Amino acid sequence: MSTERPDSGLRLILGSGSPRRLELLAQIGVVPDAVRPPDIDETPLKGELPRDYVKRLARAKAEAVPAAEGEIVLCADTTVALGRRILGKPGNEGEAAEFLHILSGRRHKVITAVAVKRGGKIWVKDVQTTVAMKLLSNPEVNAYIASGDWKGKAGGYAIQGPAGAFIPWITGSFTCVVGLPLAETAGLLVAAGYPLYGVQA
To answer: What is the model's pLDDT at position 196?
Structure first.
């Protein structure tokens, strides 16, 4: 796939410091012109549902990223939801282990919201994937915690890492679980006029 953007003059700004999102964009031939991670408060509001939470954060991130004329901003937010409960990024090993024990042997949802900003307009779309986690033993949890792979990961795990061995099946978008649903992201970029695949919409 070509990453050339002939005659568009548009620059893509990724509002995320996640290396996983950079890798996912590369899968569809997109290389951001700049990376500008915003600094926002990610605390859920009282009684806020997981889907509303990620949509609010994705939009807030896009709004917080400075952009000049001709720049398109792409932001995303991912959370793990067990019913109405939001399992964000664990703050320490103890919380990460708690999350894994809560998810062990159960189904949960991973929700990623994507926001694309161009000028004064912001497009937002959320994607939900159902994930099954096998029943985990204490040695499995302890070994995963010791690996450090849980750090910075919603729900305390990353499906594309060693924890992939804990996931027997998913229903929905795999890239949503990793942190950026590619089909929906591509659609939003095209809607914003970004010349995906070297073709300007």
So the answer is: 84
d(CA 199, CA 5): 7
Q: 49 is written with which tokens?
A: 């549902």
Query: pLDDT band for position 198 (50/70/90)?
Result: low
- Identify the active-site residue in 39, 77, 126, 149: 77
Active site residue 77: yes
Q: Phi first, then psi: what are they for 132, rounded to 5°?
A: -105, 130
Distances (CA, A) of 87 to 23, 65, 96, 98: 24, 25, 10, 10
pTM: 0.92
What's the CA angle centered on 177, arms 80 and 55, to 5 degrees?
60
**Domains with residue ranges and CATH for the chain:** 11-198 (3.90.950.10)
